[in-house]
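Sample pair:
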Amino acid sequence: MDYINAFWVGGVICALVQILMEKTKMLPGRIMVLLVCTGALLGAVAIYPPFVEFAGAGASVPLLGFGNTLFKGVKEAVDEFGFIGIFMGGFKASAVGISAALVFGYLASLLFDPKMKK
């Protein structure tokens, strides 16, 4: 049942974002920022953690989950280091995911033939 919940929750999130992209004139970069900020806000008001418990990767993998991860990292760092934790918590919490994205993106560029758009 965990896999089914992850599948349909992730699908609903992606479908809602696709509708947002098609029905508004917002640029994709702004939509991504909106999703990350929404995830952080939902984490701050304690709505997103139970959602992640229910849906697992279906809720933690999309950009909403990334925003929630950034919020959790900042919250933990502020509790531990005080004010300076605002600046270091997000980096510490998301370093593995960002590093993996860079490494796998580089490996994919070695396997395939990337070209610049004209």
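The first helix runs from residue 2 to 23.
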